[in-house]
Amino acid sequence: MKTSKAQSIVFGLLLLATAQLHAETATTSASAQSPVAVDYVSGFTNSNHPEICYWFFSKDQIQNENYLAMVDQLVDKGLYTMAFITARNGVDFYNTETMHPVFARLVEHAHQRGLKIGLQLWPRQGPTLPLEDCERLIVEGEVTLDANGAASYTAQARGARAPAQAVKSELLRAFAFQRKGDGFYDPTTLQDITAQCLVCRTNESTVQVEIKAGPAIKGATVYLMTQHYYNYASNHSPAAWKSFVNALESYRDIPFDGVALDEFKNLSINTESELRKAHRAFRERYYSPAMAREYAAETGTPLERALFDMRYAPEGKPEVRMRAINTYMAVMRRGVMPVETAVYKAAKEIFGPDTFVGCHDTVHNNLTGDEVWISGINWWNIPRDYGQTDEINPFSTMLGVGFANRENAMYNMYYNKSLNNVVEKSLNCLRYGIRTHYHAVHDIQGWGVSMEKPETLAAINPVERCARLLNRFNPSFPEIKLLVVFGTEAIYNWYPDASQRGAYDINDKLGIEERGVALWNAGYLNIVVPSDLIEFGKLRLNGQGKPELNGHVFDAVVYLNPEYARESELKFLEGYTKAGGKLMIEGTASHDFSANDITERFAAISKQAVATRFDVDEISRLGISRNLLPDGCRNEDGSYVYTDLPSLKGSAPASFQMQLGGVTYSGRYHGLAAIAADSHGVLEKFTAAGFEELRRDGKLIFKLDQPADIFITGNDRGYVAIIDTDSKPIKPKLETN
Q1: What is the DSSP string of 210-224?
Q2: Domain 52-125+240-265+334-461: which topology?
Q3: 43, 117, 288, 379: which sits with the fewest CB atoms below 10 Å from its CB?
Q4: What's the CATH code, domain 482-622?
Q5: In what order do the strands lie in the sheet with 221-233?
Q6: pTM of the entire structure?
């Protein structure tokens, strides 16, 4: 955690007296042992964590260098310290001949005005990719051979979201077999008959096949897979990340402060509304030669055979299908990771180790829709210094993403057509260490309120004043002792229970995030994370047998849906219960990731659990207490943060009261307050927007004659109080006692 500059030099300031303060200083004394040095400033400068906006950079911004005026507007009227530019309205950031001089001028001017600039890149549109690198969607179908062993079959490209259009279609494989019930076959009859299939007609989106397998296999079922190419790079192919890294290289001489991939994903597929309109479900699967090589190297099985195994199993061996689904989904889901990793490393190497790398990959903010296909649900795993989410992720999910990253703060990108909603959400998020990445400046698409407009800035600047004070205070994340882990494999493999098979060929009936929300609403602060984090070594048991994630330690675990758990996850549960860990478990597990029978092994784990079904009313049995602060939150470092929207907007102050080290502190503020004391109750750090007073055991210790933003650091030997005089005709006077 970073230490504020004011705190580190407090004793030097007191010894060198008021002449060394950067602004006009007055010195008072609460007692002979507690002198107070007062520093008046015209607005607090930001520190530790940037205040960020998202800038839609369109053609009109380039005309007459209008982007320079936008920088001036943001600096003169707003409090943002970093703006990420994102291409809109036909602007091509890959057109370096046009954009390089624009970016050079933009960054130079922004730096002169004290504003940092980040570059956000979308996947490159064109030129035509080599077919080897193209993403493909596999469309499947069945036909029954007639008495001559013949049949006709036609497949049409589908599944990709417009405007994506197939650029080529062809047959991938055809397997013939004798069916033995729904989803099963006689293994002695299985044969690859691709060579007996004549592709008699094909165009960009359609394949027509004539099958002439012969009378020997008359009546057999033939399962066909056609592959449909799209001019979109498969993320398993190096071509996907090279386009981004090459673009960054072309701007190496421009000192960008940040680099971002926003909602980076695989080829987009049909939305739920599109599927409903077409009265169909998504049953396609991604495929590319690069993915096939990766899958075969990892599993020893050709991907083409695995695609078949995902749909059929030998009679009496459902584990074949279980394993195929698990392994395919695992390889598919991590497809975006090489690109995310390559861009992160390139950004740090090209623009410097302090480069801010964002944004989020919570594309549609769901665990059980198209998100698993397009992003792989890697929200907790993509390489970032700061966790980042967007829009409507619940607090438990947002903080899970935040805890999985290095920094002690995180960002939520947010837009809304209601300015009041933006203000309310942004302030509420501060209570839990979440800053807002404002979306969007120059909002030409009309997605929300445009974040550079004077009326918008006038509304959000008070919130950002609070964020700036919180950044300087720099607390840890909230103290959360309840960890909710969900089994990723259980979501992404519905088999064999067909009733759980959802629109996107996954189990969409588990309600994972809803469980985290229910706990949160009941006062049990929690974070929600995937079991992936155990497999990747980020979530582990520490020396005391407690779960630890990136230095955050938990006292209890709710484990949701462990079916198909990996070996590392089973050992986590076994080690945790063996150490006496408090466990609530929801769901059963009959097979592990490799489809081995684990019925007895899981029964032994369940026997050690405090509860074997999810129940909010039973959480207290795990030794977890509710957060009883209606507008406040205790942090891991022992500090507290309070937020209150009515007081920020109105004249009446909000109040807080809590005990720190056996001492009762209370105060009045407008918008936000944060406080920390040592184990003896001695005040160490305090900040408040619109501060009015602070009391210790009912006795007044600090008071302003008019509300103003304040930041106080020190101990019982002395304090430094920094007071904001911005927009105040008369300096606020600090009374101490």
Answers
A1: EEE--GGGTT-EEEE
A2: TIM Barrel (3.20.20)
A3: 43
A4: 3.40.50
A5: 191-192, 166-177, 221-233, 134-144, 285-287
A6: 0.94
Extract the tokens encoding 433.
């260490």
Q: How many CB atoms lie within 10 A of CB 101?
A: 11
Give the pair of three-digit tokens for residue 179. Answer: 């069916």
Q: Which residue has the tokens 């009041």?
A: 420
CA atoms within 13 A on the CB side of 556: 22
pLDDT of residue 728: 86
Burial class (CB in 10 A: 0-12, 13-18, 19+), 377: buried
Q: Are 120 and 221 in contact (CB under 8 A)?
A: no
Q: Which of 291, 457, 482 is nearest to 400 (CA)?
A: 482
The mean of the pLDDT values for the chain is 94
250, two tokens:
């072309």
566, HSE (Cβ side, Cα atoms, 13 Å): 17
Q: What residue segments make up the domains of the chain, in order of their start? A: 5-41+644-736, 52-125+240-265+334-461, 131-234+269-328, 482-622
Q: Say how far residue 398 (Cα) sits from the centre of its chain.
A: 7
552-577: per-residue pLDDT in tens? 999 999 999 999 999 999 999 999 99
Q: Are 160 and 134 in contact (CB under 8 A)?
A: no
Q: What is the pLDDT of residues 323-380, one digit of tens each?
A: 999 999 999 999 999 999 999 999 999 999 999 999 999 999 999 899 999 999 999 9
Residue 550 to residue 380: CA distance in whole angstroms: 12
Q: What are phi and psi of 367, to 5 degrees?
A: -90, -15
CA distance 177 to 189: 5
| C-alpha 416, offset from chain centre | 19
* Strands 52-57 and 82-87, bridge-based pairing: parallel
The burial class, CB within 10 Å (0-12 / 13-18 / 19+), for 12 is: exposed
**Partners of 227 in beta bridges:** 138, 170
Report d(CA 49, CA 429) in Å as an integer.
15
Classified as helix, coil or strand, 454 is helix
Rg (CA), the chain: 29
In this structure, what token pair is assigned to residue 213? 């397998």
How many CA atoms, within 13 angstroms, populate the side-chain half-sphere of residue 45? 9
Phi (first) and psi of residue 689, to 5 degrees? -85, 140
**Chain Cα centroid distance, residue 376:** 12
Residue 77 burial (C-beta neighbours within 10 Å; 0-12, 13-18, 19+): middle
DSSP structure string for 646-707 = HHHHSSSPEEEEEEETTEEEEEEESSEEEEEE-TT--EEEEEEEEEEEEEETTEEEEEEEEE
Compute, in degrees rounded to 10, the torsion defined by CA atoms 84, 43, 632, 610: 40
- Please give the Cα distance from 424 to 122 (Å, whole number): 30
- Beta-strand (E) ranges in 561-631? 582-586
Amino acid residing at 658: M
Q: Do domains 52-125+240-265+334-461 and 482-622 have the same CATH topology?
A: no
